[in-house]
Metallo-dependent hydrolase (Cylindrobasidium torrendii FP15055 ss-10), 445 residues
Amino acid sequence: MLNLIQGTFVHTPALNKLEILEDYLLGIWDPFGTIKHFAPSNSPESVALLERYTPRIIPRGNFILPTFCDLHLHAPQFLYQGNGLHLPLMQWLNEYAFKAEERMDNDAKLAQKVYTRLAQRLKENGTGAVMLFGTIKEETNLILAKCMNDAGLRAFVGKLSMDQLSSPDYIEESAKASIEAAKSFAFKMQCKYPALPDTVEPVITPRFVPTCSDALLDGLGRYATACGLRIQSHLAESHDQVSAVLTERGVDDIEVFARSSLLTPKTVQAHCTFLDGPSLGRLQATGTAVAHCPLSNAYFSAEPFKLREALDMSVKVGLGTDVAGGYSLSIMDAMRQAVAVSRMRQGANVMNKSSETSLAIDWVEALYLATKGGADALGIESGVFEIGRAFDAQQIALWDQSGGIGPLDFFDEGARISPDIVEKWWCLGDARNRLGMWIQGKERI
């Protein structure tokens, strides 16, 4: 059956290109949720479809936008979201992160409660695809996967692998045991969620270089390569972490990941704030994507990510919230923060006369990072409205007969959705403007 949606669609098919497609008709083919038709409503093909099917009409003052992608979120840390951000990274991990993760692994009922609420909060914030760090215990990560699947979210779930430099009570006993645990988790995930329409997948997840021996990283790299699995970790995140790796291993962590075959087109590395130009080029050459987390970078890194440079080098980049290193689950907040940080970098650039090239990004580029850029980084066929892509979308309501919705105010009667109006929503909008969501063509809220 073909389901039709008629109305205004907004997307960013390229980094600095915004398209507002008024009175378009989109057709979704069930049960696979792929876009089979997308054209103006008055086109001959659309007219023929409208003669056979009744569309769902998106009312005036509303538009359809691709869902957001969150490339980096620590699911168990949702338990203490908004706490402990006064500490440096390594101390914060010991005092908050490891304890919360261990608590979740020891309490299945708590894990179910936390992860169910996390999934609901993600939908409220328009996040349709999320890459998740879990815990070290297999059963707890299977709970996480089930909660995401039950909510209908597109989720990439990582069982943590770490065999050193963690809490004595929260560590895997050896590299061999850790590798076998990662294999067991991935196998069970693939058996339970084998293919579309299921949208939940396992991710090989070495926490970061300090907590993983070379033997563990090498084994995970070989396994991920052999099975074509996704990979996620942290790279060049903070000054103390970078220094610790250099002291312990004698090389930077990008070299450690590279020699273990963990930089691949299926890899997402979070932060990357201390990478220079040649290292960014290395990510581009290997197809490795970056999860840019501007809020948590402000708390835990002495450097901002070189976003403009990475984009100019065609590195794949999307946005991450990094809860709980970042306190907000909202990718809308991450978009705004990404622009603000880039403008501060450009201000320093101007004052220091460092470069004639602007380091700033604008709101359209940030919207791209949150949607198509994130989807490309994750390797999923969504993020833009094109025939053959998955219909992952959200309905945004700006106004109705009584005026602007939520935080939005409009004073021009008869206004049409324009770039200025979309920008106003981008700056001021919140969850009150989100009326619906579809993942893989299925309505979720």
User: Anything to note?
Assistant: The longest strand covers residues 2-14. The chain has two domains: 2-66+384-443, 68-378.
